[in-house]
Amino acid sequence: MSAQKKAESGNLLRSYTPYMEKEGEEYMNDQQMAHFTAILQSWKQELMEEVDRTVNHMQDEAANFPDPADRASQEEEFSLELRTRDRERKLIKKIEQTLQRIEDDDYGFCDSCGVDIGIRRLEARPTATLCIDCKTLAEIKEKQLGS
Q1: Is the pLDDT of residue 118 over 90?
Q2: How far is CA 37 from CA 7, 41, 119, in A?
Q3: At how many degrees (to 10) do helices 68-103 and 30-61 cross?
Q4: By mean pLDDT, which of 12-16, 48-52, 133-137 is the weakest?
Q5: Number of domains in the chain
Q6: Does one domain contain both 101 and 35?
Q7: Does residue 39 contact residue 16 with C-beta atoms inside 8 Å?
């Protein structure tokens, strides 16, 4: 992946305005839900556009080089790009599941203990399903089990 593409993909979630909570405001109210829906839909759209760019790039750059080293370099570049797109495909699926959680009024609460995940954590990781405490415990268990 080129440095420009890395910079672009790093900016996916940086283009939003952080949500400013008002004193006494109910957690996961309509404005907050709309805020996170907009973030998730924008993120999904940017990922889908990246998929389109990859397809166009691979079609435009595909060549049958006579030199085996050049062919191998191109195949390695395409392989790396396809692995990145596969990770993004999985992320798109996770974004779609998160948007469904918003539709079902089940967004913003920990799957494990049921407490609020928190606005700032959700802005940092909009697809989060665990509060920071439960996520930390899960990571500790994962390390102990060596998975």
Answers
A1: yes
A2: 24, 6, 13
A3: 160
A4: 12-16
A5: 2
A6: yes
A7: yes
